[in-house]
Amino acid sequence: MENSFPEWEYPHISGLDAAGIIEETGAGVSNWKPGDKVFFTADLPIREDLLNTH
Q: Across the strands, what pairs with 39?
């Protein structure tokens, strides 16, 4: 696989992920509670017009 972003150092962390601990929830929230550890990872589609292909 060609390196489309040669200026990046690998492994590269793009900053699209998040993690934390829930501090409080709103009314009606039943799936999470304070103290739960949560994370999010983005799975963004690759747009060919953003790739450095030369």
A: 19
